[in-house]
């Protein structure tokens, strides 16, 4: 068990370039780096995480909610949306917390990769537990997207997908136009999301289904 006097430092690693930048620049050997896998990441996200470990010699703890994304929505009998983002809470935040508690860590500093150009994300971040202190080192040190991209342009490896594909491939948070843009060039990514909606009987976005969006995208019937 951790001593009460020692505050463990935990890094939230999403598998993207910004959080990887954060880990590389602020990580210390006693820190934990945790990637919570939703099961809906792009295959090249997983490759990037492996490349990161090999090149930086920083170990990443990979966690997954038991049964994955599908099990969660079956349990909830709903799909998440902009008003109920239970996917992030259950698949990432609480999955990480359960792992840490099982290892005797209840008090920790939680490093989150929100940049200087993302002040709204920092402001909206809600403190979920009193014993967990959120830290935003990139925001504090005025690290923006341009700085992050410049850094990765000089590295021998990088995330080999455009930023629009980062995190869950067709996450509802990306918005309708972005989702259809992705579907236009990657229609195969839509199928698992369409299956969710048809199985559960709800849609991720208001007034339009993933199936309808795929039809519009693959027939070039939208302005995106």
In a nutshell, what does this entry contain?
This protein has 10 helices and 5 strands. The protein has helices spanning 17-26, 43-56, 68-76, 86-102, 119-124, 137-140, 145-153, 176-185, 190-200, 210-218, and strands at residues 8-12, 32-37, 61-64, 108-111, 132-135.
User: What is the total tally of β strands?
Assistant: 5
CA-based gyration radius:
18 Å
> Which structural class best describes the helix and strand composition?
alpha/beta
Q: Estimate the strand proportion.
A: 5-15%
Order of helices and strands: EHEHEHHEHEHHHHH
Explain what you see.
- The protein is of the alpha/beta class.
- The chain is built from ten helices and five strands; from the N terminus they run E-H-E-H-E-H-H-E-H-E-H-H-H-H-H.
- The protein has a five-stranded parallel sheet with strand order 3-2-1-4-5, sandwiched between helices.
- Helix 1 links the parallel strand 1 and strand 2.
- The protein is globular and about 55 Å long.
């Amino acid at each position: 068990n951790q001593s009460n006097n020692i505050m463990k430092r935990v890094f939230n690693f999403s598998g993207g370039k910004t959080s990887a930048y954060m880990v590389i620049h602020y990580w210390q050997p006693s820190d934990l780096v945790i990637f919570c896998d939703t099961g809906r990441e792009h295959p090249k996200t997983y490759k990037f995480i492996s490349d990161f470990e090999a090149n930086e010699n920083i170990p990443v703890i990979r966690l997954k909610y038991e049964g994955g994304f599908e099990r969660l929505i079956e349990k909830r009998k709903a799909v998440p949306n902009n008003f109920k983002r239970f996917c992030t809470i259950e698949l990432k935040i609480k999955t990480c917390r359960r792992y840490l508690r099982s290892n005797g860590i209840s008090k920790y500093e939680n490093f989150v990769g929100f940049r200087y150009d993302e002040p709204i994300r920092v402001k909206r971040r809600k403190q979920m537990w009193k014993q967990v202190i959120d830290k935003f080192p990139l925001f504090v040190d005025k690290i923006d997207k341009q700085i992050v991209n410049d850094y990765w342009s000089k590295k021998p490896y990088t995330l080999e997908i455009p930023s629009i594909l980062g995190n869950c491939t067709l996450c509802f948070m990306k918005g309708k136009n972005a989702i259809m843009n992705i579907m236009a060039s990657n229609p195969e990514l839509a199928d698992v999301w369409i299956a969710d909606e048809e199985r559960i009987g709800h849609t991720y976005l208001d007034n339009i289904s993933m199936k309808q969006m795929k039809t519009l995208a693959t027939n070039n019937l939208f302005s995106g």
